[in-house]
Write a structure and sequence with these properties.
Blueprint (H helix, E strand, L loop, with lengths): L1 H6 L9 H8 L3 H19 L7 H26 L4 H11 L5 H12 L3 H25 L6 H10 L5 H16 L7 H5 L15 H13 L5
Helix pairs in contact: 3-7, 4-5, 4-7, 5-6, 7-9
Length: 221
């Protein structure tokens, strides 16, 4: 489920600026954070996906445990002197896993400092943005539109969390008062300013280098 939420971002056939951004940049905290956010709370808490399907719900809970453990392992391996055997013991004791999945994932966390924690940082950041948006709009008696909020999260493409937080803050400001800023129209309707790309941006040689780097650094959950 997490993989579906994450990788659907790259399946659009529309070639505008945001699609170009998504294909040529990769911010782990946003991309993987959105995927985890979509998994929980959206699907796990806000739908009846797991109603009367206890085996799938068990699987979802186990993966939540797994993701919590890898926060400990990621930081432990790179800053607290944790060994590989220590990490494998954590998976054994708390995720009841002694398969090669634990071994392969531990190798993955050893080779990419901070990659596992970026998932949760992004998830919590988007979750916090949603809570902030709901609270501030509710305080002004404005209905919170969840679909609209998610549209604004995704409308900026793969972006740094600080930038995304800035956009959502501007969205809240303009939602409360459409005349508070001169650019409220473009903030509330971001797609009206997106151009369709009809020719490559930059030189083909330069983008070949970026594509190769991008593809070689893709990671999958």
């Amino acid at each position: 489920m997490q993989g579906f939420n994450e990788h659907f971002l790259s399946t659009s056939q529309k070639k505008d600026i945001i699609d170009w951004l998504n294909s040529n940049s990769y911010y782990t905290a946003f991309t993987e954070g959105w995927a985890l956010y979509g998994e929980n709370p959206l699907l796990a808490q806000n739908t009846d996906l797991y109603a009367d399907n206890y085996l799938q719900e068990y699987g979802m809970i186990k993966w939540q445990i797994w993701r919590a453990l890898r926060l400990i392992i990621d930081t432990g391996l790179h800053s607290r002197g944790m060994t590989m055997d220590d990490a494998l013991k954590i998976f054994k004791d708390y995720a009841w896993d002694t398969t090669d999945k634990s071994y392969k994932d531990t190798i993955r966390y050893m080779s990419g400092p901070g990659q596992a924690t970026a998932y949760m940082i992004g998830q919590l950041a988007i979750w916090n943005m949603r809570n902030k948006t709901k609270e501030q709009l509710f305080a002004k008696n404005i209905l919170f539109d969840e679909k609209e909020f998610h549209f604004h999260i995704l409308s900026q493409g793969s972006s740094p969390l600080h930038y995304l937080e800035s956009h959502i803050s501007n969205y809240i400001t303009c939602k409360i008062n459409k005349t508070s800023r001169s650019d409220c129209q473009s903030i509330l309707n971001p797609t009206t300013n997106q151009e369709t790309i009809t020719k490559p941006i930059g030189t083909q040689k330069r983008w070949n280098v970026i594509y190769e780097y991008h593809n070689s650094h893709l990671t999958y959950d």
